[in-house]
Design brief:
FAD/NAD(P)-binding domain, five-stranded parallel β-sheet, alpha/beta, Enolase-like, domain 1, 408 residues
Length: 408
């Protein structure tokens, strides 16, 4: 009997862990090797800027699987190893220790890394990034002491860290070149709502300014200087200016790269036998009819399994409605769809905007393209169904909270 093919997954995080799970669930009995740079087994990152950072969630709650699961499922999980090269012609990957591992199918789930800010003082103690469990634990230990915190970037991570820092009693200044928080993600109105929320909780914003220097004292950060020349005292500086997909391995192996590793709707890269999913993949989404790279939890959760099914030869056409959630202070929010500038011609609201219990609806040509429910729950499935249907909606009914969403 011929040996079962070997499947190798690079990146032991949510995408990689879920892909391994799906391979077994779908009955694959051959070897699965799951390789990850981090010392931890696969875990979920959202708690790292929320409950886990605040000390309200146990470490055990962040993991994708129990430690025992890997042995039970015969998944060869190797942590603390980095894949340094992929050789598609030989069908093998090379590890940092020099070992090579052969594969029949390869999944790249290498994720993304925080963008670094190349400014004077950027390497001082107290200049922090947030992506890993270790970084979350370190940040938590710093914030717990209170003090003055400067945050570069009013995006999702910057704002979640600002909310946590305020809960710890820190003095928080957020520096952001755009005119309001989340300007690129949500536009001026809804970005303004998040700005107001943080101001009400005592956060100071410096909009229209970038972080241009970090000044130190005794090797540690003591202040930041903005592009307007203002000096803001800071014992800790959190850099939260977005992420870059980890495409280096794929590029070196000759795979096509666009906004990430280019894949089709079956998560296949330009090289046969190699797939990509999660934050690193620029996926052709068959619902949206274009490629999109999504840097969110739900995409890791569903694209890893989709890639696994494709690797097994099942028909796959990735059509997930992009979905994102955040929790800041007492505000919880979910967004489905892509409310990007140019992608809609109308925004209407349903519910109580002033009281921050509402749904924002982005429409294009009379059809819903994105919806954000703020402190309104159990509606995201209906919103996603509406987006998926692409049908015309009656805006009078859409904005009437008494009309069920599936009847607008
Ligand atoms: C602090 C934080 C909070 C977040 N909160 C939310 C939220 O509230 N809602 C939401 O929707 N999303 C959130 N996200 C985003 C979400 O966590 C990511 O979309 C998700 O982690 C992507 O999973 P991934 O497995 O594709 O990539 P990653 O999580 O980046 O994992 C990739 C893994 O691959 C490893 N790797 C890379 N290269 C190699 C190599 N050459 N060899 C071996 N291993 C390698 C990396 O070390 C890493 O462990 C948050 C992210 C962070 C950092």
């Amino acid at each position: 009997m011929p040996a079962e093919p070997a499947y190798v997954i690079v990146g032991a995080s949510l995408t990689g862990g879920k892909a391994a799970e799906t391979l077994r669930e779908e009955g694959f009995g051959g070897p699965i090797v799951l390789l990850g740079t981090e010392p931890e087994r696969p875990y979920e990152r959202p708690p790292l800027s929320k409950g886990y950072l605040l000390g309200k969630e146990e470490k055990s709650s962040v993991y994708v699987h129990d430690q025992a699961w890997y042995a039970e499922q015969d998944v060869d999980l190797r942590t603390g190893v980095t894949v340094t090269a992929v050789d598609p012609a030989a069908g093998q990957v090379t590890l940092d220790g020099g070992e090579t591992i052969g594969y029949d199918r390869l999944l790249l789930a290498t994720g993304a890394s925080p963008r670094r800010l190349n400014v004077p003082g950027g390497d001082l103690d107290g200049v922090l990034y947030l992506r890993t469990v270790a970084e979350s634990e370190h940040l938590g230990s710093v914030l717990r002491h209170g003090g003055k915190v400067a945050i570069a970037g009013a995006g999702w991570i910057g704002l979640e860290v600002a909310a946590a820092a305020r809960e710890f009693g820190c003095e928080v200044t957020v520096i952001e070149p755009e005119p309001v928080a989340l300007h690129r993600a949500l536009g001026p109105e809804l970005g303004g709502m998040f700005t107001d929320l943080h101001r009400e909780h005592g956060v100071t914003f410096r909009f229209g300014e970038g972080l241009s220097e970090i000044r130190g004292s005794g090797g540690s950060a003591a202040a930041v200087v903005t592009s307007a020349g203002a000096e803001v005292p800071a014992d800790a500086v959190v850099i939260a200016v977005g992420v870059r997909p980890n495409t280096g391995l794929a590029a070196d192996a000759g795979l096509d790269i666009s906004n990430g590793v280019t894949v089709d709707a079956a998560l296949r890269t330009s090289v046969p036998g190699i797939y990509a999913a999660g934050d690193v993949a620029d996926v052709f989404n068959s619902l949206l009819g274009r490629r999109v790279r999504v840097e969110h939890w739900a995409n890791a959760l569903s694209s890893g399994p989709a890639a696994a099914r494709a690797m097994l030869g099942q028909p796959v056409s990735y059509d997930q409605v992009p979905y994102f959630f955040t929790d800041q202070y007492d505000l919880g929010m979910e967004t489905a769809g892509v409310p990007e500038p140019g992608g809609y011609d109308q925004v209407v609201y349903r519910g109580d905007r002033a009281g921050r219990e509402f749904i924002a609806c982005w429409l294009s040509g009379g059809a819903l393209v994105a919806g954000m429910n703020v402190n309104v729950w159990d509606v995201s499935d209906d919103i996603q169904d509406l987006i998926r249907s692409k049908r015309q909606v009656d805006t009078a009914r859409l904005t009437d909270p008494d009309v069920p969403l599936n009847e607008v």
